Structures are given as C-alpha cells and as structure tokens.
Amino acid sequence: MSWNSALYKRFFFFALTLAFTACGAKKGSFATTSETGSLRNLSAKSVIKNHYAASGDFKTLSGKMKIDYKSGSTSQGIPATFRMERDKTLWISVFFGMGKALITPNKIAFYSSVNNLSFEGDFAALSDFLGTPLDFNMLQGLLLGEAALDLKKQRFNVESTPQAYRLKPQKALALFKLFVDIDPQNFKVAQTQISQGGSQNNLRIQYPSYTEMDGLLLPSEISVSAQTNKTETTVGISYKNISVNRALSFPFKMPKGLKTLALKSDTD
C-alpha cells in the first residue's frame, strides 16, 4: 500500500481523531416530547443542562474498531485499536501496530512505518492544516458525542425541529460558524457542524444512533465529512469489544529514521 503525501495526511488525521469515538453517557430518563408527540418548548439553558446531565462518568475506554475511509478515488477499510483516558490521553494503533498516534492536551504525535513518516506538533499546526480551530477539549467533546465547545461559557439560541434541538451561538464566533443538534431522546449530540467563514472548509460529524454498551450509551456509528477547498473526505467508524475503566497503558516510542511530515494547508 502506497499513498501520496496529501492523502496520507488526511487519512491519518481522521484515523487518529476518530478512533476514539467509542464513548458516551449513561442513559438517562428525560421528558422530551409533549402529549402530541412534538418537542417540548425547552429553553437553550434547559437543553444545555440536560446535555451535561447525560455526560458519562468513566475514567478509561478501550476497544477495537474498523475505520472506513474515502477521499476521491481512494478508499480503505482499516482495522484499529484505541485507548482513552478521559481529559488526558487519546491513543490509536492502526495497521496492526505499523502506525500509532498519541494525543494529549499539549501534544500530537504519530508515525507510520508503512509510509516511513512521522509527526510531532501541537493543535496550532493541526488547526492550520484543517482550516478549523481545534484543541484537545474540542476534539474530545466531538469524539464523545458531546458538545465540542463549553456551552456554559456563552449564550445560545435554540431552534426546535421535529428531529432535534439546534443550538446556535447568539454572538457570532470570530473565526468559524457552529451549530449543534441535540437528540431529544437522550440529549446526546446528533450532529455538529463547524465551518470556516469565507472558505469552503467544513467539518460535519453525525451520530445517527446510540447503543448501550457496558453501562454506557455509545455511538453505534459515526459519520464524518470534511470539505477542504475542492477535496471531500468521509469516514465511517464501527466498534467491537468495548471495555470500560480497565487499567491501561499508552505505549508510544517514535522510531528513528522516519521522514518528518509537515502539515500544510491546501493553500500553501
């Protein structure tokens, strides 16, 4: 298997970010509909309160997954394993250990022995590459089926649709546009969309359904679509053998002799 650099960069970004999505919340009991079957007229404050009440209480998650990746004419089904320690570490191993990634709040590192490439950097470099601001907390929130931003730090408007409560910031964000659809049945995120103003860069993460696994409500599938200029990349992910609160290690040692990969935006 041999990919060009641009395809490899996009693949590994999605592999390392999406491989940790097997997480969620304990299923709660919420009154979400009226007797007529329509959504209750909840305020944005109430929707946000219920969303945080649905957040799962766990320390670690681990399991196996399959990542289905497509960009242009290139497509792959990739086996992977993942490990997560909440708020601290995201770890993934792909190609049966031939590629690994380790993400912490301050650092992103990955390598591929298959492609003889490696990368060490921070979220500033990744944000520039994607054209969308990201940090560890935003990434973790997206991967947990939770809001990417701290919804308590700003005011939101809520629009009730037949399928979701849609939250939009009352004050426009400086660098990008955002909306979050909250599932009325479990108050987990149904969809998050982030787009960069004045460009075609767009990231959409959808959670069509959730399944209870090992006491947690987890996304049963995740669909991600990213548009960067004229390139669209999609990723689907499925899980198996999920374990909660096991003692985990995060082995990672950068091999010597690999070519260092510099993440650059398509406009560079």
Would you give an account of this structure?
This protein is mainly beta and 268 residues long. It has a single domain (44-239), classed as Lipoprotein localisation LolA/LolB/LppX (outer membrane lipoprotein receptor (LolB), chain A), CATH 2.50.20.10. Helices cover 15% and strands 40% of the residues. The protein is built from 4 helices and 16 strands. It has helices spanning 5-18, 44-53, 123-130, 136-143; strands at residues 60-71, 74-85, 89-94, 99-104, 107-112, 117-121, 156-160, 165-169, 176-182, 189-196, 202-206, 210-213, 216-219, 222-228, 231-244, 259-260. The chain has a 14-stranded mixed β-sheet, covered by helices on one side. A two-stranded antiparallel ribbon has the order 12-13. Strand 5 (107-112) and strand 6 (117-121) form a beta hairpin. The longest helix has 14 residues, at 5-18. The radius of gyration is 19 Å and the shape is globular. Mean pLDDT is 76; it is low at 1-12 and 14-37.
Topology summary:
Elements: H1 5-18, H2 44-53, E1 60-71, E2 74-85, E3 89-94, E4 99-104, E5 107-112, E6 117-121, H3 123-130, H4 136-143, E7 156-160, E8 165-169, E9 176-182, E10 189-196, E11 202-206, E12 210-213, E13 216-219, E14 222-228, E15 231-244, E16 259-260
Parallel strand pairs: 6-16
Antiparallel strand pairs: 1-2, 1-15, 2-3, 3-4, 4-5, 5-6, 7-8, 8-9, 9-10, 10-11, 11-14, 12-13, 14-15
Distance between the termini: 27 Å
Oligomer state of the chains in this structure: single chain
- The ordered string of helix (H) and strand (E) elements is HHEEEEEEHHEEEEEEEEEE
- Give the strand order of the largest sheet, numbering strands 1, 2, ... along the chain: 7-8-9-10-11-14-15-1-2-3-4-5-6-16
Tell me which CATH architecture applies here: Clam
Main sheet makeup? 14 strands, mixed
Q: What name goes with the CATH superfamily?
A: Lipoprotein localisation LolA/LolB/LppX
Which runs of at least 5 residues are low in confidence (pLDDT < 50)?
1-12, 14-37
Helix content: 10-25%
Query: How many beta-strand segments?
Result: 16
Radius of gyration: 19 Å
Structural class: mainly beta
What is the CATH class name?
A: Mainly Beta
Mean pLDDT, all residues: 76
CATH topology: outer membrane lipoprotein receptor (LolB), chain A
Strand content: 35-45%
Domain count, please report it.
1
Instruction: Please work out how many helical segments DSSP would assign.
Output: 4
The 3D shape can be described as globular
